[in-house]
């Protein structure tokens, strides 16, 4: 039997890749360990090795093919005595099943009138998108940094693998080439040290962008972020302050376990003296990061690894800057308010779509900023819908949802027709097993269920 | 106090010297002895710190100063001798035993004392207290309350000096207690790797709060703590202001020439407890008496100046009187300045976006 070579998963979050180049041709003999192909992932170009000895019988995927799903056969290796002509080419063999969106909870269609087509509600402070380009979130973040670095010589980027490696998640791709090693600086693995060094540089009138490879590692540096960066303006009676950005991916990625999968939204939102934003779309990413870099205060930008490869229409203008502290109503609705930030916005929108099929009109608020929190937008929405579901990936206890619940109770108690519901990650360290991880994370159906319960439609 | 000299600092980008190894920087002292005028100034500067701290201790006892209050009495020669080498572009950062550093940086004793009493005319408008004071104008970047945390920050100020090519050097002061914090070594590594202009001044007063250095550190040669990173270190008699001044000259020359950081271990001693509430029972009366009697930096300089006929007793009396008057003035100011208005509670949390 010929051995199938499958499209490999080369990172925890990879779902597909490009077969950039074949390094062998049909009929070549290969030994285990020989390089046979170059695979481009969303993060890097990797070489694929043969894992068996034999002869390359068929190349099933053409060089240059994009979007090849992980685990799809890309080549066949013949056993001794086998000939390429002997074997049936599994040309359209079904790929290993990906996780399809669950459909078990689709309800019976109702006769309720379908809500009007969803549309975002734009606040007066919301800048026009203007001309846009389809970009990934990682490109939007990179553009935001590059544009601000061109504008202001005091802006520099520092972190692990940001320069020569082009970013652990390719966010800083091309920046070293454009801005040189003076302004794009690889650090040793020393989070507390370079976070503190960044604060000192900011005291020295520079504008550092400190990248944490993930916010999990920023826990090593949290003393510098809070005690040194956030508090010094106050402790100095207004003399010091520092303009500094701490950014990087936050929250769960995919199967990386408890120490690498945590949302720090509630942690940093708790602290006075800095600002905290959490972009979802490409426009959010660009507009909020640019605002963060220009801000005279410390600003923490919680990104999400799973969104880095997502494509959005992103404004091309250098002047696209979003106001920090303003939420965006991504979808207007009248029956229930759903608040979400970063990756949960996408899930909330999906939930709203499903709710619409059930005749429930959900208003989805993309919080964008967690400190300051745009309480006004939430309250106004709840005064209209009389119900609220808060979504976050973080732990439930003392989470962002707890704060939103309290704000609503204090400011819109009389408008409530149902208790505020919280959809959160579960209260355990993140498990590794695929099924358990999925159970630990808030899913679209949880939002749908919570919204229906709030509408007494369960 | 020691004025920040206005001479233009030399650029720190001299490539020829950056190859110098840690070893070749050793010895062959070219440092100049302090002039007579400088020594008189050292005396005044040290005495101002001593009298200021004594008064702060008094005000603490009267309940006028709250919280933690860490006095610098005994260590005056360290900051006075080093700050005499400072140029305008240079910056200074330290931990929480910071009153002496502020006075040596030229900050107004009235503003420092008023901060200690928590009044609106304090350097931080009463919102920082003893451990958190700053003066951008004087290049003093705090005043930090977390042991070790100021070391990466000072290194970052050094990074900014290099990035801005302003010729400045950061004087990064910390105690022996901080030298076992991990982030100190993270900072050493980056400073050496990137040849940042930082002078790490370890004020080894032998005790991290109540724990002697022997009980806290596997290696007590603190000047050698940079060896793994190729950072040269010197031991200096921190109770001898002239020795400190000369060591500072050499260190500044080395660092300003683009060689990267250097460590100065200042052997010093604090006469008081760690803070006002520390009875200091972990050391003997004899030990303290010996340091005070034989090594006091102010007495030593006074004897020297008398022996050299620079000043007679009347001259000293006059100087003492003037300093005492200055301290009294600061204490009165600190008691008459009003407490911050309640509205101050909510200001200075964030800067307004332009």
Describe the protein's architecture and organization:
Chain A is 27% helix and 22% strand. Chain A is an alpha/beta fold and 458 residues long. Chain A has three domains: 3-84, OB fold (Dihydrolipoamide Acetyltransferase, E2P), CATH 2.40.50; 132-315, 3-Layer(aba) Sandwich (Rossmann fold), CATH 3.40.50.970; 328-454, Rossmann fold, CATH 3.40.50. In chain A, strands 11-10-12-13-15-14-20 form a seven-stranded mixed beta sheet, with helices on both faces. A five-stranded mixed beta sheet of chain A has the order 17-19-18-21-22, sandwiched between helices. Chain A is globular and about 80 Å long. Chain A starts with a strand and ends with a helix. With 354 residues, chain B is an alpha/beta fold. Chain B has one domain: 3-Layer(aba) Sandwich (Rossmann fold). Chain B has eleven helices and eight strands. In chain B, strands 2-1-3-4-8-7 form a six-stranded parallel beta sheet, with helices on both faces. In chain B, strands 5-6 form a two-stranded antiparallel ribbon. In chain B, helix 1 crosses helix 2 and helix 5 runs parallel beside helix 6 (182-193). Chain B is globular, with a radius of gyration of 20 Å.
Layout of SSEs?
The complex is a heterodimer of chains A (458) and B (354).
Chain A: E1 3-6, E2 16-22, E3 29-30, E4 35-40, E5 45-49, E6 54-59, E7 65-69, E8 73-78, E9 132-136, H1 137-151, E10 155-159, H2 175-183, E11 184-186, H3 191-203, E12 207-211, H4 222-230, H5 232-235, E13 245-249, H6 265-269, E14 275-277, H7 282-294, E15 299-303, E16 311-315, E17 328-331, E18 336-340, H8 343-357, E19 362-366, E20 369-371, H9 375-385, E21 388-391, H10 400-412, E22 421-423, H11 434-440, H12 444-454
Parallel strand pairs in A: 10-11, 10-12, 12-13, 13-15, 14-15, 18-19, 18-21, 21-22
Antiparallel strand pairs in A: 1-8, 2-4, 2-7, 3-6, 4-5, 6-8, 9-16, 14-20, 17-19
Chain B: H1 36-61, H2 76-83, E1 91-94, H3 99-104, H4 109-116, E2 140-143, H5 150-164, E3 170-175, H6 182-193, E4 198-204, E5 207-208, E6 211-212, H7 213-216, E7 233-237, H8 241-259, E8 262-267, H9 285-295, H10 297-307, H11 313-336
Parallel strand pairs in B: 1-2, 1-3, 3-4, 4-8, 7-8
Antiparallel strand pairs in B: 5-6
Helix pairs in contact in B: 1-2, 1-10, 1-11, 2-8, 4-11, 5-6
């Amino acid at each position: 039997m010929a051995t199938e070579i499958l499209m490999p998963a080369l990172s925890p979050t990879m779902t597909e890749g490009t077969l950039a180049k074949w390094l062998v041709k049909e009929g070549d003999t290969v030994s285990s360990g020989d390089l046979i192909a170059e695979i481009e992932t969303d993060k890097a170009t990797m070489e694929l090795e043969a894992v068996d000895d034999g002869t390359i019988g068929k190349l099933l995927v053409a060089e240059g093919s994009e979007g090849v799903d992980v685990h799809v056969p890309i080549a066949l290796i013949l056993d001794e005595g086998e000939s390429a002509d002997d074997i049936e080419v599994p040309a359209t063999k079904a790929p290993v099943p990906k996780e399809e969106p669950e459909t078990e909870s689709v309800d019976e269609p109702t006769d309720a009138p379908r809500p009007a087509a969803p549309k975002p509600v734009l606040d007066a402070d919301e800048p026009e998108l203007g001309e846009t380009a389809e970009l990934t979130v990682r490109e939007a973040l990179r553009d935001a940094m590059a544009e601000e670095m061109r504008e202001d010589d005091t802006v520099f980027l520092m972190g692990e693998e940001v320069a020569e490696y082009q970013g652990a998640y390719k966010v800083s791709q091309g920046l070293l080439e454009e801005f040189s090693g003076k302004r794009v600086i690889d650090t040793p693995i020393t989070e507390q040290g370079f976070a503190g060094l960044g604060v000192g540089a900011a005291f020295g009138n520079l504008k550092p962008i400190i990248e944490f490879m993930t916010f999990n590692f920023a826990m090593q540096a949290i003393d510098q972020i809070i005690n040194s960066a956030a508090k010094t303006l106050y402790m100095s009676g207004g003399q010091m302050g520092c303009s500094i950005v701490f950014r990087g991916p936050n929250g769960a990625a995919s199967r990386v376990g408890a120490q690498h999968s945590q949302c720090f939204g509630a942690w940093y939102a708790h602290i006075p003296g800095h600002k905290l934003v959490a972009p979802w779309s490409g426009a959010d990413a660009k507009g909020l990061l640019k605002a963060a870099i220009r801000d005279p205060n410390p600003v923490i930008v919680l990104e999400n690894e799973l969104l880095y490869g997502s494509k959005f229409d992103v404004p091309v203008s250098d002047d696209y800057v979003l106001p920090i502290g303003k939420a965006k109503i991504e979808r207007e609705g009248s029956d229930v308010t759903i608040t979400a930030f970063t990756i949960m916005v996408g899930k909330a929108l999906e939930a709203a779509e499903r709710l619409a099929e059930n005749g429930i009109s959900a208003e989805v608020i993309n919080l964008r900023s967690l400190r300051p929190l745009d309480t006004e937008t939430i309250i106004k929405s709840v005064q209209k819908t009389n119900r609220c579901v808060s979504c976050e990936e973080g732990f439930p206890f003392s989470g962002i949802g707890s704060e939103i619940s309290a704000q609503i109770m204090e400011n819109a108690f009389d408008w409530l027709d149902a208790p505020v519901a919280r959809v959160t990650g579960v209260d355990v360290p993140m498990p590794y097993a695929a099924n358990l991880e999925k159970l630990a994370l808030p899913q679209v159906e949880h939002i749908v269920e919570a919204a229906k319960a709030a509408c007494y439609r369960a | 106090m020691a004025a920040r000299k206005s001479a233009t600092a030399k650029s720190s980008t001299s490539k020829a010297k950056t190859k110098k190894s840690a070893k070749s920087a050793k010895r062959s002292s070219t440092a100049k002895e302090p002039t007579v005028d400088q020594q008189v100034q050292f005396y005044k500067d040290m005495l101002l710190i001593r009298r200021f701290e004594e008064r702060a201790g008094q005000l603490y006892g009267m309940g006028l100063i709250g919280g933690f209050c860490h006095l610098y009495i005994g260590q005056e020669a360290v900051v006075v001798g080093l700050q005499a080498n400072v140029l305008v572009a240079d910056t200074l950062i330290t931990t929480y035993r910071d009153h002496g550093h502020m006075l040596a940086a030229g900050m107004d004793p009235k503003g420092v004392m008023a901060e200690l009493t928590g009044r609106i005319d304090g350097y931080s408008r009463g919102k920082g207290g003893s451990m958190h004071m700053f003066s951008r104008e004087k290049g003093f970047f705090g005043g930090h309350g977390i042991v070790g945390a100021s070391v990466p920050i000072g290194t970052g100020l050094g990074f900014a000096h290099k990035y801005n090519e302003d010729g400045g050097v950061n004087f990064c002061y910390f105690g022996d207690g901080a030298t076992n914090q991990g982030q100190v070594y993270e900072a050493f590594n980056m400073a050496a790797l990137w040849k940042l202009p930082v002078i790490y001044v370890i004020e080894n007063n032998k005790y991290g709060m109540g724990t002697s250095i022997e009980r806290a550190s596997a290696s007590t040669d603190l000047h050698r703590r940079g060896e793994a990173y190729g950072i040269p270190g010197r031991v200096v008699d921190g109770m001898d202001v002239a020795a400190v001044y000369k060591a500072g000259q050499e260190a500044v020359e080395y660092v300003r020439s683009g060689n990267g950081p250097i460590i100065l271990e200042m052997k010093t001693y604090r006469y008081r407890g760690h803070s006002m509430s520390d009875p200091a029972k972990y050391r003997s009366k004899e030990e303290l008496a010996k340091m005070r009697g034989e090594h006091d930096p102010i007495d030593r300089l006074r004897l020297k100046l008398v022996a050299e006929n620079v000043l007679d007793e009347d001259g000293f009396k006059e100087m003492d009187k003037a300093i005492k008057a200055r301290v009294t003035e600061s204490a009165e100011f600190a008691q008459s300045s009003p407490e911050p208005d309640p509205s101050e509670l909510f200001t200075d949390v964030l800067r307004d976006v332009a």
